[in-house]
Write a structure and sequence with these properties.
The structure is a single chain. With 304 residues, the chain is mainly beta. It is built from no helices and 27 strands. The protein has strands spanning 7-9, 25-28, 34-40, 45-50, 55-60, 64-69, 75-80, 86-90, 95-99, 105-109, 111-112, 115-116, 123-125, 131-134, 158-161, 168-172, 178-183, 189-194, 206-213, 217-226, 235-237, 243-247, 250-254, 260-265, 270-276, 282-287, 290-295. The chain has a five-stranded antiparallel beta sheet, with no helix packed on it. A four-stranded antiparallel beta sheet has the order 2-27-26-25, with no helix packed on it. Strands 3-4-5-6 form a four-stranded antiparallel beta sheet, with no helix packed on it. A hairpin with a 3-residue loop joins strand 5 (55-60) and strand 6 (64-69).
Amino acid sequence: MPDASHFEVHDARFTALFVGSAQLEELDSSCRWAEGPVWFDDMQCLLWSDIPNQRMMRWVPDGGVSVFRSPSNFSNGNTRDRQGRLVSCEHGPRRVTRTEPDGSITILADSFEGKRLNSPNDVVVRSDGTIWFTDPTYGILSDYEGYKSDPEQSRRNVYRLDPDSGELTAVVGDFLQPNGLAFSVDETRLYIADSGASHDPAAPRHIRVFDVVDGRTLTNGRVFCSIDTGIPDGIRVDKQGNLWSSAGDGVHCFSPDATLLGKIKVPQTVANLTFGGPRRNRLFITATRSVYAIYLTTNGAQYP
């Protein structure tokens, strides 16, 4: 039987996605605000950002936790490109960067139409190598997670970047605070969280979905689901097409038809999540000061 302390079933389909005896394991509790987890299977480690502490952390199974990078430029969201390189959103210099195999940093984007970006937040890479990222204002609202500053962009855009040509395009600009994003398994849709309710209770706390046209533009934006506790931040998709979202009370799982299947209850506010482990069947969860992990019966869809 499911362990009720971890899993909350809202639809019978959810019971096929988790192991009832699986435990929610706390891997680390040293952060001020943990964000941006990314799994490196070739190195068997998890990296994540501890934004206010200006550092990126690394966890190795049976090897414990260590500092991967400090200072981190208030890094937030992280992912990997198709060559396996680390791609990061940095609040401090308000840019998206790539870490090369020799450890050097390449700036991919730091301005749009001649003006500085707000504070890139989360990032994903499509199979064609293009980089898509969100640009809310969280990193410039105060000196806690970046440097307080007035925004130069008139909108809080979601961008598409071609890293080969350097072409940066705003693909949507009507979000209050665009946050986490994830492609569907076949990449024909892009899910984008709006966490505007973080500072305005009347603002959106939903996830929208868009159709992807020719791998370049977004159309037919509509609300996919809303979060009933807290706000949506980081999101990920499993191979069955289910959408897993951060929330105030844990992780919420939605079917491809937007039905809330269930929740993984977490004792701290969840910021982000990613699938990892050798079979991508372990969900890593960044939640306020801690990082948790739990095994599931489904597998993450992200690559590599």
